[in-house]
Design brief:
Elements (H helix, E strand, L loop, with lengths): L1 H27 L5 H20 L14 H15 L1 H5 L32 H4 L2 E3 L4 E3 L1 H12 L10 H13 L25 H11 L1 H4 L27 H11 L9 H11 L16
Antiparallel strand pairs: 1-2
The structure holds heme C (HEC) (2 copies).
């Protein structure tokens, strides 16, 4: 008897469920779900729009937040970038550190006061150069800066230091799509037809740079050397007038940039004609 009642109860519940579903189906035609739907479509559209223009979000993780299996390498990479002489001294031939140009180890959004970012280089390389018909990977590109910007020696690809640097690039690129258009990378050149005048640049240097970089560009405790034996060599990217002008315009005087494009071009014209170490090697690209 008890069993029969139980089964009867189940049948009644099932019947209600079926009828209920039917009713809600009929009523759903009259209920307006368009709000929920429109929110969904807006979200989908914005994702599609971002993908369409390749927009990327600047949100690099901190080096110390790297997972345990790569943390030692990431931290060593970060230390090399921010204290190069101490952590990779045998490969450095001047008194610069990577961070003097790649501010904060390159963990910046570039632009004003950001120096040269390295966030996302791991998503941008290898870079295929059609003209030279070869592909530049990050080991080669990093060694360009060691040999030119640091006036030093290339690191073996399998050295502890190079593996650490590349692991570091990879970690700070977390979440960025491979080969996305990353707007904060690279030197931003000035758009100006102005012809640089090194004589005027000498005056700009005396007024706006010498108090930190020294009267003879030799560097002081307040700023690294701009020319002379302790600076980057003549094969370096920063030795190109348009690179130095673009960098100085956005970043110098440090913390308070604001030179006119003309002053930036003039001072770059002056600094790039001062004596500095000579790069011995193939003059293929700047570092
Ligand atoms: C307030 C001090 C200060 C002034 C003034 C200043 N700089 Fe700098 N500059 C620095 C510091 C500090 C760095 C390194 C930044 C870092 O390590 O984060 C630097 C880095 C540089 C670098 C890259 C590293 C190197 O030594 O090559 C260049 C190029 C440069 N400055 C050019 C200039 C020029 C040109 C001017 C004048 C228009 C200027 N700076 C004025 C403090 C200054
Ligand atoms: C005197 C300034 C200076 C110093 C010091 C310097 N670099 Fe660079 N670096 C540059 C310039 C200029 C570029 C070229 C940026 C461009 O192509 O727009 C560059 C490019 C790079 C790139 C490629 C970035 C890109 O967007 O394609 C990497 C990687 C790099 N440097 C790593 C390093 C490392 C590692 C060190 C230290 C061992 C270092 N750099 C020291 C000036 C410097």
């Amino acid at each position: 008897m008890k069993n029969n009642r139980f089964i009867f109860a189940l049948v009644v519940i099932a019947a209600f469920a079926v009828v209920g579903a039917g009713i809600s189906l009929i009523f759903s035609r009259f209920i307006d779900f368009s709000d929920a739907k429109s929110i969904e479509t807006v979200a989908q559209k914005s994702i599609a729009a971002k993908q369409a223009v390749g927009a990327v979000v600047f949100n690099p993780p901190l080096p110390r937040d790297a997972p345990a299996n790569i943390k030692d390498a990431v931290m060593l990479g970060y230390n090399i970038l921010t204290d190069t002489g101490k952590y990779a001294g045998q490969y450095v031939g001047n008194k610069l550190i990577c961070s003097n140009c790649h501010f904060k180890g390159g963990i910046t959004q570039g632009g004003k006061n950001g120096g040269l970012s390295l966030v996302g280089v791991a998503a941008s390389y290898p870079e295929y150069k059609k003209r030279q018909n070869y592909s530049v990977d990050l080991v080669t590109r990093t060694n360009d800066c060691f040999q030119r910007s640091m006036n030093g020696k290339p690191l073996p690809a399998d050295s502890k230091e190079m593996i650490a640097i590349v692991t570091y690039y990879q970690w700070i690129a977390k979440g960025l799509p491979i080969y996305a258009d990353i707007p904060w990378l690279g030197v931003k050149h000035l758009k100006s037809a102005y012809k640089p005048d090194a004589a005027k640049g000498k005056q700009v240097f005396a007024q706006k740079c010498a108090m930190c970089h020294g009267d003879n560009g030799q560097g002081t405790p307040a700023a690294p050397p701009l020319w002379g034996k302790d600076s980057f060599n003549d094969g370096a990217g920063m030795h190109k007038l348009e690179n130095l002008a673009g960098f100085a315009h956005l970043n110098m005087p440090l913390g308070n940039p604001g030179m006119s494009a003309e002053d930036a071009l003039d001072v770059a014209g002056f600094v790039t004609t001062r004596p500095r170490p000579h790069f011995i090697g193939k003059a293929k690209q700047g570092g």
